[in-house]
Fold this sequence. Notes:
mainly alpha; 15 helices
Amino acid sequence: MKPFVSRSDKPFYAGMILLGGFYVFMVVAMVLANCQYALWDPKVGETAPAGWPQWLLWYLANNPVALALAEPYIQYAVMLSLISCSITTIISIWVAVPIGYLMSRHSFRGKMLLDAVLDIPIVLPPLVVGLCLLILFNFPPFAWIADYVVYEIPSVILAQFMVACAFAVRTMRATFEQISIRQEQVALTLGASRGEAFWNIVLPQARRGMLAAATLAWARSLGEFGPILIFASTKRGVTEVLPSSVFLELQAGRIHAAAAISLIMVLLAVLVLIVTRLLGLGRAAF
């Protein structure tokens, strides 16, 4: 009988790294390509002055990102994006926490149907979500406030919320499912009410999950375009957010401007992720 010989794990890990590394490479290459394209416009570069100090000062003021941020409508789009994404995130967390808690702690008739309903905004194409919202506001009681919502700033927030909240709900449900119910039951046996047990025992343990849900909702809101295009339109200076600006610049043939705006979105998303890691996981996570 031949003795057992342990085989090397190197082929296994090589295959895993090769498959996973391809995706990582594509993400990094995609972002770097966008950065290179957004930070240098050959047509603008034809007017660059000679000399390193003069060129650097000129470049800081005339690169595509700086030129894009100098446009009033882009400044408006940045401000509206930041405000609408923040409002959407707050609302999403307020909704996602109770839904996630109830779905993780209780079984009831129709739970599977409700679970499927909560996934509808995730599986539906974004354009269909916007179309459904647009049709919804043709019927009472939504039709009564349609003039104040459709194609106005509230429609941007509502379109972002309908998609972002679904992701926040999934995150909060997974968070509550990972929290042991035993401590909550002990608190109830010691005389605490259900609300007191939730606020004092469960919610503090769900802090990181809430932070993850908020990050996901904010990032998803920032990149949302399909529902906004249909339900809020792309009116400059009214409902224009950063994804809308990219679309409008592409429609006008200003590819470098579109790339510059997309780079601003990348920087905002990276900034949110870094702040989230610092607040939620500590510096050791880096």
